[in-house]
Amino acid sequence: MPVTMKSIEQIDQQNETKSLISSFTNLIGLAKLAKKVNFKRKSSISLSMIISWLMSVHFARHSLYRANKDDNFSIRTARNVLNDGRINWQKLLCLVAAKLISILKPVIDKRRRLAFIVDDTLMSRAFSKKTELLAKVYDHDKHEFLTGYRGLTLGWSDGNTFLPVNFALMSTKKKSNLIGSKPITTDERSIAGRRRLQAKRQMNDVTVELINQALKSGVPAKYVLFDSWFTSPRMFWLLKQLGLDGLGMIKKSSKVYYSYRHRLYDIKGLYDHLAASKICKKNHYLYSSVVIAQYQGHEFPLKVVFVSKRGSKSNYLVLATTKIALTPQQIIQMYGRRWEIETYFKTAKQYLGLNKSQIQSYDGQCGYIACTAITYDLLAWQERQNTDDKTMGDLFFIMNESLPEMKFIDALVYLITELKQIESDTKDEINEVLTNFMVNLPTLIQKLIKPIV
Prior knowledge:
Number of helices: 15
Number of domains: 1
Domain Transposase IS701-like DDE: 72-261
Distance between the termini: 31 Å
Protein name: Transposase, IS4 family protein
CATH architecture: Alpha-Beta Complex
CATH superfamily: Transposase Inhibitor Protein From Tn5, Chain A, domain 1
Structural class: alpha+beta
Radius of gyration: 23 Å
Pfam family, one: DDE_5
Largest sheet: 9 strands, mixed
Number of strands: 11
């Protein structure tokens, strides 16, 4: 009898999973997106069926080789679809995110600052020497070169919900760092060829391409948040040409100069100048000033904010944005949202097996990442449904107060946490944020996904 009851519970859970995935795919109109992303398989098996099955595989915590096959197609068929170089996986993720955002729009306050968030993460592949475009990549946490890729990700946030909207699997252009096989094609006339050439370009250039593609797909945003790895006058200028304001952390470099009151300073020199002046330090930050940045003869204003760890004169962070109308408190609060993409990386790796792909082809890995991101979109949607009280009938439209944004003090705590990274690991902090994210999910979702050991 216990075995029978366990089987019944398992069947019920599988049916609930299928129902949940089916509702989500219908909500975003996944079946209608196939032609838009160049899916040209001549059979009764649709792209929506393949992705729905892959999402159930993520929930079951199985690899593609150990997953339960679908009644309508074999696992080999699913792998063939993932490996199809004609499918534009980046565009698919953009369109899915744009659809979800349009559904959320009625409950997003019009005063809310919508923002893109950019970051990259290590996609380790230590035992896949023959994988296409596999390379030696630098791990900033361990400070050593590892085998794998850099997973460049573009996310979207309204201050409550984070959605991955675009991605690129970055390799290397140095032949000495290339470990895996060479790209099977570099023909720029094909999607597969452009995807592989993109993997070998500079990450900042690819970031601008991903943002531009997301904007053209209908993803609304006015800001772009990034850490010091992406921050430069060039990045600020390129984003300004797209109609976006960048907001990031500036490196304390002695090679980049800014004009302040008709004199040039590097960022450390500017801090020393302000510290030596009679400007009083504020309660939540040290100093704030507007400087002039330059890129290829173009000049534009940049607002910089110095945030310091209390009790320390040498440890401070420097935030900067081209939106000079923002107050220092608003700049700190906005930058605090950048932590959401770290939560996504942790969730996708620990619960959805983002870096556990066993696929050898480069196209297949891109398809796997896209399906993982779409699965996370489902989780984010369910979390929003479970958190938002305005989902009861007409109240969803009548009570149009949006969920509260991150408080200023919380953003300040986040910045202090980043300062602590200089001396200690932040694994515990990320785990705490991840735990809070999981607790807010519906009970069904919590039962479906289990942490990766």
